[in-house]
């Protein structure tokens, strides 16, 4: 491994400043205090501040801070000699993020100066060590703070107390139980009553929005927000927080009978209006429009949803329809459910048995994982560097002892350094183990192999659809499919695919007649048509028509 690149500080006295506070509970004056202290510090040291960055109410454990990212982007152009910080934790409370940010600053020739922490600027080794100690303290504070927060939330939940979760129909105060809100509770009861009486959800939303009613977050009502209300068991008195469930922990707003009726109706109306079909054709099987959520109109981009219709003789047909076609703003006609799903099923089967595609998917997933988790060894190298510094200081103390120099201060310093060495060794071991047992391509391939199964099984089919296919676009004459882990864009003309599927069905029909008692002739026919050997006579090819 080559030697680390020597740090070369930018010339001059130009400086930039970065200020941050974590919580909306803090006062904006904390930013002002940091700014005032930084300006005094710059004046005392002869620095010239050329730009200031500040992030309000954003946690230091996240690097998704606009001004923080802008500073790291602009530092290469500005080339200041110094970055002035209030403390080490202003840059980041996450140790890895801090290492990466400092690496970027170092590469751009920027030296960090701290206003409120005693870190020597003329001794780089001691500076690195002290920075590491302060960073470790900041990280330890975050862990401790999270534990305290979770302990408080768990205590609240176990006692059915308000935990910050706002719900329509209730009011809540810290350290107190939820209470019924006389202003919004009637809205909740009205929603349940109208829905169980058969009023469509969109019509309920329109009625509420038309009278100026709003959700608990101050937004207009939508079908999704209405569905969340109808499924919320808090309204029958059930308090829930994570794994903690307390029957009777909430004031009841709705009777069990009404709530259960709403759940039954939600289930009946799920995926394409099953309940409406049942009213017209009680004997018809419940259709599963399993492409819902993945299928879009190629002409206008609107979603497609399941509908049904009958001809003059009363025969029932199923379609996928563009939501904008029903509003007369799109020309895409209703598309046959049977054909659309048969084509998608054909492609799924093809993907499932295409080893080359599985390799492409596994490589794409692995590369994404590496981009997200591989820091090119920066964290491990930083640990090694800090460990080397600590070991060097310990060696200097031992040399002093050998010369007869020893005192209480030196003994305490040696004890502290031994503690730091132990922590760094543990962290280094943990990082090496993380890399040793990191995700491998073979793990992803084994996961993809777990999809193998009967595509007639709705769960297997839906799982494969969600994992591999990104979007399905429907045009008047074709389907276009895109995929999560590949740039492949398949265009599937209806006429061509319909003929292919018909041929597959014809072959299946021919083979079906001979499966019970295969002969030498049928075996040869199968081998000729499908490339199969006589040994596979008992195996069944997929039927691509539901």
Overall description:
- This protein has 546 residues and is of the alpha/beta class.
- Among the domains are: 14-146, Rossmann fold, CATH 3.40.50; 170-269, Putative Large Serine Recombinase, Chain B, Domain 2 (Hect, E3 ligase catalytic domain fold), CATH 3.90.1750.20; 276-333, no CATH class.
- Helix content is 50%, strand content 14%.
- It is built from 18 helices and 15 strands.
- It has helices at residues 29-45, 66-78, 88-91, 95-107, 124-158, 185-196, 201-210, 223-231, 256-269, 274-280, 337-352, 355-373, 378-402, 408-436, 441-449, 458-468, 494-512, 520-530, and strands spanning 14-20, 48-55, 82-85, 111-114, 170-171, 179-180, 238-241, 244-247, 295-297, 304-310, 316-322, 335-336, 469-474, 478-483, 486-493.
- The strands form 5 sheets. The chain has a 4-stranded parallel β-sheet with strand order 2-1-3-4, sandwiched between helices. A 4-stranded mixed β-sheet has the order 9-13-14-15.
- Strand 1, helix 1 and strand 2 form a beta-alpha-beta unit.
- Helix 6 (185-196) crosses helix 9 and helix 11 crosses helix 17 (494-512).
- It is extended.
- The two termini are 60 Å apart.
């Amino acid at each position: 491994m080559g030697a680390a690149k020597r740090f070369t500080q930018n010339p001059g006295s130009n400086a930039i400043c970065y200020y941050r506070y974590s919580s909306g509970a803090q006062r904006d004056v904390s930013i002002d205090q940091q700014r005032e202290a930084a300006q005094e510090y710059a004046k005392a040291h002869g620095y010239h501040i050329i730009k200031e960055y500040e992030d309000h109410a954003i946690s230091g454990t996240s690097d998704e801070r606009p001004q923080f990212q802008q500073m790291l982007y602009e530092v290469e152009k500005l080339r200041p000699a110094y970055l002035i910080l209030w403390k080490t934790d202003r840059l980041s409370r996450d140790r890895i993020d801090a290492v990466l940010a400092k690496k970027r600053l170092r590469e751009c020739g920027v030296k960090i100066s701290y206003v409120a922490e005693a870190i020597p600027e003329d001794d780089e080794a001691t500076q690195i060590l002290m920075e590491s100690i302060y960073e470790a303290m900041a990280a330890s504070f975050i862990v401790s703070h999270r534990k305290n927060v979770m302990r408080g939330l768990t205590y609240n939940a176990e006692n059915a107390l308000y935990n910050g979760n706002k719900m329509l129909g209730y009011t809540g105060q810290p350290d107190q139980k939820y209470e019924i809100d006389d202003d919004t509770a009637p809205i909740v009861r009205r929603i349940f009553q109208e829905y169980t009486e058969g009023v469509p959800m969109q019509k309920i939303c329109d009625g509420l929005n038309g009278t100026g009613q709003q959700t608990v977050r101050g937004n207009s009502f939508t079908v999704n927000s209405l569905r969340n209300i109808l499924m919320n068991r808090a309204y029958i008195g059930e308090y829930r927080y994570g794994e903690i469930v307390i029957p009777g922990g909430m004031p009841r707003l709705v009777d069990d009978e009404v709530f259960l009726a709403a759940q039954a109706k939600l289930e009946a109306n799920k995926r394409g209006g099953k309940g409406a079909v049942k009213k017209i054709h009680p004997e018809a099987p419940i259709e599963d429009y399993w492409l819902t959520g993945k299928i879009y109109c190629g002409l206008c981009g609107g979603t497609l949803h399941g509908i049904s219709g009958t001809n003059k003789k009363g025969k029932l047909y199923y379609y996928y329809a563009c939501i904008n076609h029903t509003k007369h703003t799109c020309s895409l006609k209703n598309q046959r459910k049977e054909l659309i799903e048969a084509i998608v099923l054909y492609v799924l089967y093809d993907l499932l048995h295409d080893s080359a595609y599985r390799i492409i998917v596994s490589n794409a997933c692995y590369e994404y994982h590496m981009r997200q988790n591989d820091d090119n060894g920066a964290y491990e190298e930083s640990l090694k560097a800090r460990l080397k510094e600590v070991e060097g200081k310990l060696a200097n103390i031992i040399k002093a002892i050998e010369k007869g120099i020893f005192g209480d201060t030196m003994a305490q310093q040696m004890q502290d350094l031994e503690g730091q060495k132990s922590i760094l060794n543990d962290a280094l071991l943990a990082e090496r183990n993380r890399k040793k047992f990191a995700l491998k391509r073979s793990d992803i391939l084994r996961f993809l192999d777990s999809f193998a199964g009967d595509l007639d099984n709705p769960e297997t089919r839906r799982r494969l659809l969600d994992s591999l296919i990104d979007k399905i676009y429907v045009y008047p004459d074709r389907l276009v499919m895109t995929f999560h882990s590949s740039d492949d864009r398949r265009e599937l003309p209806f006429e061509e695919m319909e003929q292919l599927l018909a041929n597959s069905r014809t072959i299946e029909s021919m083979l079906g007649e001979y499966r019970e008692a295969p002969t030498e002739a049928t075996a040869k026919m199968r081998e000729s048509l499908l490339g199969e050997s006589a040994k596979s006579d008992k195996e069944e090819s997929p039927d691509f028509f539901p």
